[in-house]
Amino acid sequence: MTLQERNRPRPQPGVPSHRDRATGWASTHRVHLGMPHLAFSGLSEAWLLKELGHRHWIQLARMAEYDFPDFYDEAGHTVYAAFRSVRIEGARFDLAKENDTLVIRSSLFRLSRTQVQSEHRLSIGGALLGVVRMVSVFVHRNGQTSNRSVVRVEIQGLPPVSEASKPDLANGGVDGTLWTWDEGAIVAADHRPQLFFPCPSQDFNGAGFLYFANVPAFVDRAEWNVDPDFARNAITRWRSVAYHANIDPGEAISIELVDFERDDLMWRHRCRVTRATDGKHMADVLSVRSRVEVAGSRRVAARQEVGCADRPDC
Per-residue pLDDT tens for 88-118? Predict the structure, then answer.
């Protein structure tokens, strides 16, 4: 018996197969918020992306009818889900505070033979905090240990692709058409590229890759270096990240920030992330960031705001 066969649970009488639900897989997860989940001005985006990446990975296992996510290709290579794109929409992370219960409603869909998308709707007390969409591809290292050897692969055993479920993020989410203001109105602010050295013990994951969630975190550090007065209380309202390549431990990344629109309360910018050693294009990050008034106590009880104190789904 192979490891994947041992990993696959036995069918239970009366329980429909995940395969029968080819249009998607849904789940609800609740998190009681404390210091690990919060940042200076609200919900921690870095924690959130790591958590949603984990939920995405766990749901992939469930969609494949595995007890845990342990994927291999036909040649026996370990297979990982590498994120191709992430988009945060309508974010109100500043509403989150200590002891809130964050509700994460997730769904998973196949886009193609190698791509899967998850959608995560976030709420506290019935108030929507935002929607996060993530597209992953299955990859493995092509017989080497370097992250430059990663190639895309197909995994057997997943439900068939549902054409009706394909969303608009299938093309990566960063195509130059998302922002419609006149290019001629761009603020003249091509900032000097900034160099960062990711730390293996902090910025890489257990698979040895620069963790996808840390790419926008480095962008926030670049923003902080340009304007710490704004960045001190800034929070993400919208963000779209397209991932193209990775690095090995010991390599540096370069981030070039270009302003699109900026005032005292809002900053829209594009960041191009490259591998410093050879200039390889690693990621594009489009961000809409806004300044919130203060950190600390931010809102009245959301459960009272929406009148759902007795509702179990809040």
Answer: 999 999 999 999 999 999 999 888 888 999 9
Q: What is the pLDDT of residue 102?
A: 98
Residue 92 belongs to domain spanning:
3-7+24-305
pTM over 0.85: no
In this prediction, residues 5-21 reach a mean pLDDT of 43
Please indicate, yes or no, if residue 94 is contained in any of the structural domains: yes
Residue 196, both tokens? 């960062």
Q: What is the number of other CB atoms lying within 10 angstroms of the CB of residue 107?
A: 16
Interatomic CA distance for residues 26 and 133, integer angstroms? 14
Tell me, yes or no, whether 46 lies in a domain.
yes
Burial class (CB in 10 A: 0-12, 13-18, 19+), 79: middle
CA distance 161 to 41: 40
Q: What length is written for the chain?
A: 314
